[in-house]
């Protein structure tokens, strides 16, 4: 039996199981499928690279954990809005400080180099698993009395609205693939140089003032984005 056929049989087996469920042993699978163990092992290696299974030394092979999905939905006028991502999200602040913007960040946030920023790094957790690392920069005069706790409970955007009467209106977000460095791998609990998604977002209020710049690293094995597209009759 060819390796591609073995992979197809294994995919069918995975689809019938829940995320995180243990698979039968290699001996049992090779007997069930009717293939040699080296061929079976090579097929499992490929499925692991595809992110469909996870091997744990001494425990066995498991179906991959459920991916957390974030939808991007077209709204009126072709704009996009992002509903909350799946699951119950919490945050753990690992760094909270105030710092001068400097030339580079001052330009990005459209403030002077000496303008004070609130700089926060937090780990975002969902279903008890670390999912992302966010580095958030906010002009201090927008959130003059904020503490680390303000970034740990509830939605930061909701806090801006309710406490500071600052309403996020528009944002430009860039997404690109990357891999985790040593620090990011440790915080996310993934191997070094694991696939990840890099998000850079600049948010403005209705008057066009920059109110936030965030750089985030999301796990590539657990997080995905779904875009909903709508075509008119003139689309090619």
Automatic annotation (TrEMBL):
Annotated Gene3D superfamilies: Chorismate lyase-like, Winged helix-like DNA-binding domain superfamily/Winged helix DNA-binding domain
Record-annotated HTH gntR-type domain positions: 1-66
Indicate yes or no for the key word Transcription regulation: yes
Task: State if Signal is listed as a keyword.
Answer: no
Family annotation (PROSITE patterns): HTH_GNTR
Q: Which UniProt keywords apply?
A: DNA-binding, Transcription, Transcription regulation
Looking up Pfam families in the UniProt record yields:
GntR, UTRA
Note the InterPro entries from the entry.
Bact_HTH_transcr_reg, Chorismate_lyase_/UTRA_dom_sf, Tscrpt_reg_HTH_GntR, UTRA, WH-like_DNA-bd_sf, WH_DNA-bd_sf
- What top-level branch of life does the organism fall under? Bacteria
The name of this protein is GntR family transcriptional regulator
Task: Look up and give the organism this protein is from.
Answer: Amycolatopsis roodepoortensis
């Amino acid at each position: 039996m060819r390796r591609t056929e073995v992979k197809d049989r294994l995919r069918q087996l995975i689809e019938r199981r829940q995320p995180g469920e243990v698979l039968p042993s290699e001996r049992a699978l090779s007997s069930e499928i009717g293939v040699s163990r080296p061929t079976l092992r090579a097929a499992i290696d490929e499925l692991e690279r595809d992110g469909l299974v996870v091997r744990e030394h001494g425990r066995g092979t498991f179906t991959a954990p459920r991916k957390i999905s974030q939808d991007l939905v077209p709204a009126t006028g072709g704009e996009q809005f992002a509903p909350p991502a799946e699951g119950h999200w919490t945050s753990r602040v690992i760094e909270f400080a105030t710092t001068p913007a400097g030339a580079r960040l001052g330009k990005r946030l459209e403030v002077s180099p000496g303008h004070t920023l609130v700089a926060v790094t937090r780990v975002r957790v969902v279903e008890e698993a670390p999912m992302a690392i966010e580095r958030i920069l906010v002009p201090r005069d927008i959130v003059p009395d904020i503490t680390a706790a303000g970034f740990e409970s509830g939605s930061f955007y909701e806090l801006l609205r309710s406490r500071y009467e600052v309403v996020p209106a528009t944002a430009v977000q860039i997404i690109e693939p990357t891999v985790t460095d040593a620090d990011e791998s440790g915080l996310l609990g993934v191997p070094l140089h694991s696939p990840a998604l890099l998000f850079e977002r600049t948010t403005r209020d209705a008057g066009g003032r920059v109110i936030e710049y965030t750089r985030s690293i999301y796990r590539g094995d657990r997080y995905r984005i779904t875009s909903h597209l709508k075509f008119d009759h003139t689309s090619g």
